[in-house]
Amino acid sequence: MNRAILAIAVVLFARSAFAGDDHRAQALFDEGKRLLHKGDFTKACSKLSESEDLDPGLGTLLYLSECRARLGRYATALSGFRAAESLARSRGDSRESLARLRAAQIEPKVQTLTVIVMKPSPALEIRADGIPLDRTKWGSAIPVDPGPHTIEGLVSERHWEKTIHMDAGQSRATVVVPAIEDPPPKPAIEVRNAPDRAPFFNPQRIAGVTAAATGALALGFGIGLGIAAKSTFDASNELHCKSNNRCDATGVAMRSRALELATGSTVSFVLGGAAIAAGAVIFLTAPNEKKKIALSVGPDGLLLQRNW
């Protein structure tokens, strides 16, 4: 393995690992190489990965892939070396042969996971570690790194899940996804002509209450006019009229005013009483309307319908 690192270093000598001028990416790359030669693979991979994210480069990808191979993450390392090989080929870069050699060396060490689907269906979705698995890969060996891997099967509202752990010395594993089918539709239930009373205060009852309230106000106004007429008449008797109903000019005017007030009071009483009576008739003759409700339960849920 140390010879592989040395080979990469020799090929990359006098070449920049970056196409850009990102000093932070260069510093991370240099630190990652130092840690890789030191044998601190976990920290080295972290630095190299961050450098690759900041400024992708063929050299960084080769070192990062080598670092991951040292950690035993052969599936990820193989993918990186193949990507580096393709990139080098497209550029006419001599490092293509190095990437191809390292890919061939670690490929036998790659662990695989096979997902077997018992009952494929158009609606079925298979996910591996949260990522949808292409249907062409169902039943085929998928390169994976050591550690836990979760396989999911989803159909509509149905969900199946299983997590397995790939040990470092384990070469392959298989997960069988059982048949996952849509739940059967629920039988429809219908309830017809369920009575539902209309609101108590419908427009007719509101009109009746309004008429009665207006009549009550008129009665109150009539009472006020009657009290004023009585007070005016009594005042004329005390000051301006004698017991034989002979009055001076002021008394005559006061009695005339009292008569007008009494007449207004009578009219208010009559109109108020009529309005109250009319309001009562309107209120009491309002129809009790009924609505019809149709309730249905089916595969799509609960449906409530009203017929007005």
Structure description:
This protein is of the alpha+beta class and 308 residues long. It folds into four domains: 2-109, Alpha Horseshoe (Serine Threonine Protein Phosphatase 5, Tetratricopeptide repeat), CATH 1.25.40; 111-177, Immunoglobulin-like (Sandwich), CATH 2.60.40; 184-200 and 288-308, no CATH class; 203-286. Helices cover 51% and strands 21% of the residues. The protein is built from eight helices and ten strands. The protein has helices spanning 2-12, 23-38, 41-54, 58-70, 74-91, 95-106, 203-239, 249-284; strands spanning 111-117, 125-128, 131-132, 141-144, 147-155, 158-166, 172-177, 189-197, 290-298, 301-307. The protein has a four-stranded antiparallel beta sheet, with no helix packed on it. Strands 4-1-7 form a three-stranded mixed beta sheet. Strand 5 and strand 6 form a beta hairpin. Helix 7 packs antiparallel against helix 8 (249-284). It starts with a helix and ends with a strand. 23% of the residues are buried.
Features:
Immunoglobulin-like; about 300 residues; alpha+beta; Serine Threonine Protein Phosphatase 5, Tetratricopeptide repeat; 8 helices
